[in-house]
Structure to design on (106 residues):
């Protein structure tokens, strides 16, 4: 309306507390809009059959497109920084529960 450029906002983000669980998501998890994308899952114990804590959508070129977490607020903050900066995170590090989320966003 004033002819000014609107401020730039980061990746879309939401959170919700339901049934004693804190859920957050950032970016998009719709792989249909990103041909060649893949999902990486972080489990509590690092095994494929473990309890999922986070899911990440990586574009074909390795960019992080989105992340959803359960009770891992530091992870979603790191994911938002990674998305906003266009960083290429290591998929194995995303899946590894021993890797500090803050190190992923550097």
């Amino acid at each position: 309306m004033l002819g000014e450029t609107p401020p730039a906002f980061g990746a879309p983000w939401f959170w919700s507390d339901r049934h004693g669980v804190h859920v957050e998501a950032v970016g998009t998890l719709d792989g249909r809009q990103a041909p060649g994308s893949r999902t990486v899952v972080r489990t509590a114990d690092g095994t494929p059959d473990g309890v999922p804590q986070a899911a990440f959508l990586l574009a074909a070129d390795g960019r992080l497109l989105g992340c959803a977490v359960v009770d891992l607020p530091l992870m979603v903050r790191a994911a938002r920084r990674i998305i906003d900066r266009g960083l290429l995170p290591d998929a194995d590090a995303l899946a590894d529960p021993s890797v500090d989320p803050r190190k992923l966003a550097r």
